[in-house]
Specification:
Layout lengths: L1 E5 L3 H11 L5 E5 L22 E4 L5 H12 L2 H8 L1 E2 L4 E4 L1 H13 L4 E5 L5 H5 L4 E6 L7 H11 L4 E6 L3 E3 L9 E2 L11 E5 L1 H13 L20 H5 L27 E7 L6 E4 L8 H8 L10 E3 L3 E6 L25 E3 L9 H20 L11 H11 L19 H7 L3 H22 L1 H4 L6
The structure holds flavin-adenine dinucleotide.
Flavin-adenine dinucleotide binds next to helix 1, strand 2, strand 15 and helix 10.
Length: 460
């Protein structure tokens, strides 16, 4: 018997590892390299389709807390991230190729994981396999069309969608370091970022060209549907001449280390690989035509002759109406997923309405643990809303408003112990520290209470 997982991305790989390391046979199916989504390019599993950053490492931020929670619970994605990180100041960024190879290698080497490479066009193709004892659907925001249609028809709720864009990556040796320089904001930590500075005239000339530049056609695209957390730079610029100076081109705290000069606007680039040859333009996700990216971004001082390792692109992301359909273990709780389905079915990853690489992996972790519970006869495990991992699951399964939108890690969705507010008073920094500390304490209790799951047969 085996748990079948469709999709070998962040969620699918994490779920596969959680199951196989506890002694459960897993069949992990991914369509690459037979077919690639519009954003995937490599045949490796757990591919980063855009930024190489997993955001903040600071445990007193929501995203840093989620990462630490996952380390404590034993996440393979976090293990891979920590083993393949590249310098990125207070963020955790990775070499995307080494990261993906690490996870592909780990899963390849596990005798209980069978990796099949093929396109799945319908749920019935998988549940009709005679050894299926549970199914996890983790096909991501770019789920291949036929399967996506099958899923939404089965759920009977229609799919939701939004548009997400990726930022360009440029080769370091094509950057003009006569103008660009390494520095960190406020001189904090190591100077890991490349900064391309602009004076007032340069900024306004750049801004005028950016707002007038030609965009690539993206089917069904409507500017109202962009995800606020990953807004194309040209859409942000369209909101007003100064918007970028308060966003990705924020100049505050950045000084030229040689001259002490500060600037009207600054574009930052973050290292993308361990070899230190490629840099990602931070916050410059875009759907400009490729020629326009070269022309307009070439107006940025230091990038006049930049060679692009990858241009920015935009894609339609799809997700299901999870509230009322999934429970907080990410299992389909709604009846009527299909008369042919007699095994437990879970969804995991961005398709559930969580947003981000690590958030997607976190739902794979929860779904994987709960699929393990189901097939091994143990009680299920729901993490409380006082933890970030539990808050994301509660949001995806229980959001009660009319407009279900993808959600990344944040403190707003958590319900901390009431003592936190009482002890922190008006001190916001202290409140975050108490929330994070409280969450990690609770996880330690859960781990010792549920030794049947956390200390069973985990093979490190
Ligand atoms: C263009 C774009 C940019 C993004 N940028 C960022 C970013 O900068 N930072 C961030 O945190 N998040 C970003 N995201 C969002 C999200 O975090 C990632 O998409 C993340 O990879 C989601 O993880 P997942 O496991 O749900 O899906 P994925 O990692 O996409 O994995 C899904 C897997 O399923 C496979 N698959 C799909 N359909 C089928 C099928 N029918 N049969 C078999 N296999 C199938 C795919 O080949 C893929 O390997 C971006 C998303 C997109 C689309």
């Amino acid at each position: 018997m085996a748990v079948y997982i469709i999709g070998g991305g962040f969620a699918g790989c994490e779920a596969a590892w959680q199951l196989a390391s506890r002694g459960i046979k897993v069949v992990l199916i991914d369509m690459k390299p037979e077919r690639f989504s519009p954003a995937h390019v490599s045949s490796g599993l757990c591919e980063l389709v855009c930024s190489n950053s997993f955001k903040s490492s600071d445990v007193n931020t929501a995203s840093g807390l989620l990462k630490e929670e996952m380390r404590r619970i034993g996440s393979v994605v976090m293990k891979a991230a920590d083993a393949n990180k590249v310098p990125a100041g207070s963020a955790l960024a990775v070499d995307r190729v080494l990261f993906s190879s690490y996870i592909t290698g780990v899963l390849d080497d596990m005798p209980l994981v069978e990796i099949r490479r093929r396109v799945v066009s319908s749920v019935s193709e998988v549940i009709s396999e005679p050894d299926t004892e549970a199914l996890i659907i983790a096909t991501g925001p770019l789920t291949d069309r036929a399967l996506c249609d099958d899923i939404t028809e089965r759920l009977g709720t229609g799919a939701l969608s939004f548009f997400d864009a990726a930022a360009p990556v440029v080769y370091k040796d094509s950057i003009d370091f006569g103008k660009a320089f390494f520095a960190s904001r406020y001189g904090k930590g190591d100077s890991d970022y490349i900064n391309c500075p602009m004076n007032r005239e340069e900024y306004h000339a750049f801004y005028n060209e950016l707002v007038g530049a030609q965009c690539a056609e993206v089917r069904d695209f409507d500017k109202g549907d962009v995800y606020e957390g990953c807004m194309p730079v040209e859409v942000m610029a369209g909101r007003g001449p100064d918007t970028l100076r308060y966003g990705p081109m924020k100049p505050v705290g950045i000084r030229n280390p040689s001259t002490g000069e500060n600037y009207y606007a600054v574009v930052q680039l973050r290292r993308d690989d361990a070899a230190d040859s490629m840099y990602n333009m931070v916050g410059f996700q875009t759907r400009l035509k490729f020629g326009e990216q070269k022309r307009v971004f070439g107006m940025i001082p230091g990038l006049e002759n930049a060679e692009f390792a990858r241009y920015g692109v935009m894609h339609k992301n799809t997700y299901i109406r999870s509230p009322g359909v999934l429970d907080a273990t990410y299992e389909v709780s709604k009846t009527g997923f299909g008369d042919d389905v007699s095994v437990p079915v879970f969804f995991a990853g961005q398709i559930t309405g969580v947003e981000g690489y690590i958030e997607s992996a976190s739902s794979g972790l929860v779904a994987g643990l709960n699929a393990y519970s189901k097939v091994s006869g143990a009680a299920g495990i729901i993490f409380p809303q006082s933890t970030q991992i539990g808050a994301l699951a509660a949001y995806a399964s229980g959001y009660g408003g009319p407009d279900f939108q993808p959600m990344g890690a944040n403190f707003g969705i958590m319900i901390p112990d009431p003592a936190v507010s009482a002890n922190a008073g008006k001190d916001k920094k202290k409140k975050k520290e108490l929330i994070s500390g409280g969450s990690l304490d609770i996880l330690e209790h859960i781990k010792s209470d549920r030794s049947d799951i956390f200390e069973s047969s985990i093979r490190q």
